[in-house]
Specification:
Elements (H helix, E strand, L loop, with lengths): L2 E5 L3 H13 L3 E5 L2 H11 L3 E5 L1 E2 L2 E2 H11 L5 E5 L4 H9 L4 E4 L5 H28 L6 H13 L6 E4 L6 H10 L8 E5 L5 H9 E2 L11 E2 L1 H4 L3 E6 L6 H13 L1 E2 L8 E2 L2 E7 L3 H6 L5 H7 L2 E4 L10 H16 L5 E2 L1 H9 L5 H15 L4 E2 L26 H19 L4 H8 L3 H11 L7
Parallel strand pairs: 1-2, 1-3, 3-6, 6-7, 8-15, 8-16, 9-12, 12-15, 17-18
Antiparallel strand pairs: 4-5, 10-11, 13-14
Helix pairs in contact: 2-3, 10-12, 13-15, 16-17, 17-18
């Protein structure tokens, strides 16, 4: 069943709730203060929290906000003996799932509220799974090859190494592998190995025992143990130092972990998906990455091509992100104009799919009507004050279109720099006022003279 964290400063209430929810098959964690609650929440990753709004000198609303900062998807049910409608509304406004009053007249009500919150979380989880699969979009041969590998590999427990430039969707692919596997009902967690210094990364991955180092006041489960019977995604695995690499290799070989400071290994059942944007073979040759670990994680390599190598997928991805953010932002943006679409397809997208998604999100946010037609919202096809991007796809390009898009980009930049003043913009581009006026009209651009 679920893992439930109960936070209340009344011992009798904690014991009652623990009995009621344990009998329903849940694993129950309890604590009586804000600091302990935040620590348990981070360490144990509960599925739901029952939180008293009055915790001695601690403010339950503040704790609620901090819990939601750590993980906004975990439902929080607030409990209070001081529950006025104002308190309840404020808690709900800050993100609480529901509220219940104490003392409790009906234990079934507690079970019902918890069950309903967990059901909603499960429903959201299923929606996330569909979205994870849906966002790996495209009809290009390069992507079809990747998706074919995913379909064949997902049902297995094979370790996968995903390579590709930043923003190509490596974590998206990892989630799709998890959700399409027999482990889909188990936990999926990810960690960026480059985000932690070496000692802290070891503690995050393998856990530690009380007293293992200064500040280790209690035992802590590592992500590998928390991910038991699930999938752990190790992003930027190439940034891991050699000492931590040795410990990861042991886990892959023996399926056992040794928490920092412990002498008792623990057996784990975890599938690892690793990712990097570095050349690990080069790192092995330079002595920065262990060869034996490389061979262990490179059992099945999957390379995600950059977006510039699958331009045919851009319209499909752009349309998907348009629908996604129109719904999320409550906007009625329905389409992208042909000239904006042309610029999207001409851009080199150094930030890959992530850059495209951010661009469409910004365009939807700032759109004034049903059609995205503002060229200034879309990246230029050339680098500012530099040479055009000379990438030539295998299928060729429409040179006249690319030249027109490049010209338009510089016209827009000049107009923006001069607040739409045609004379000054013409001087920046070293063309006549007459030529500037003609080109502005030709491309349907706006100026201060309009």
């Amino acid at each position: 069943m679920a893992k439930v964290l109960i936070v209340d400063d009344e011992r009798s209430l904690l014991e009652l709730l623990e009995i009621v929810l344990s009998r329903s098959g849940h694993e129950v964690l309890t604590c009586d203060g804000a600091a302990a609650a935040l620590k348990l929440f981070g360490d144990e990753k509960p599925d739901i929290v029952l939180l008293d709004l009055r915790l001695g000198t601690d403010d339950g609303l503040d704790v609620l906000a901090r819990l939601r900062t750590q993980d906004p998807d975990v439902p929080v049910v607030v409990i209070t003996a001081y529950s006025t409608w104002d308190n309840a509304v404020e808690a709900m406004r800050r993100g609480a799932y529901d509220f219940i009053k104490k003392p409790f007249d009906d234990n079934d009500l507690i079970r019902e509220v918890v069950a309903r919150a967990l059901a909603q979380r499960a429903m959201l989880s299923r929606a996330e799974r569909r979205e994870a699969a849906a966002e790996i979009l495209g009809n290009s041969p390069a992507l079809r090859n990747v998706l074919d590998i995913v379909r064949r590999v997902a049902p297995t427990d094979t370790t996968v190494l995903v390579t590709g430039e930043s923003g190509t969707g490596k974590e998206l692919l990892a989630r799709a592998l998890h959700y399409c596997s027999s482990r889909s009902e188990g936990p999926y967690l990810s960690i960026n190995c480059a985000a932690f210094p070496a000692p802290l990364l070891e503690s995050e991955l393998f856990g530690h025992v009380k007293g293992a180092f200064s500040g280790a006041h209690r035992d802590k489960k590592g992500l590998i143990e928390v991910c038991n019977r699930g999938t752990l995604f190790l992003d930027e695995v190439g940034e891991m130092n050699l000492e931590t690499q040795v410990k990861l290799l042991r886990v892959l070989e023996d399926r056992r972990i040794l928490p920092v400071g412990s002498t008792e290994p623990k057996t784990v059942d975890v599938r690892f998906i690793c990712a990097t944007n570095r050349d690990l073979e080069e790192a092995v040759a330079d002595g920065r990455f262990r060869a034996d670990l490389y061979y262990r994680i490179n059992v099945l390599p999957v390379h995600l091509p950059p977006l510039r190598e699958r331009r045919k997928d851009i319209p499909l991805l752009a349309a998907h992100f348009l629908v996604k953010y129109s719904r999320k932002l409550g906007k009625k943006v329905r389409s992208i104009s042909p000239r904006v679409q042309a610029r999207l397809e001409a851009h080199s997208w150094p930030g890959n799919v992530r850059e495209l998604e951010n661009t469409i999100q910004r365009a939807v946010t700032l759109a004034r009507g049903e059609v995205i037609d503002d060229m200034s919202l879309i990246p230029s096809t050339s680098r500012a004050r530099g040479a055009p991007d000379a990438f030539l796809p295998a299928e060729g390009i429409d040179l006249e279109q690319v030249l027109a898009e490049t010209e338009m980009a510089y016209l827009e930049a000049a107009l923006e720099r001069t607040s739409g003043h045609l004379t000054n913009a013409a001087k920046l581009l070293n063309i006549s006022f007459r030529a500037m006026r003609y080109k502005v009209k030709k491309y349907g651009l706006r100026s201060a003279d309009d």
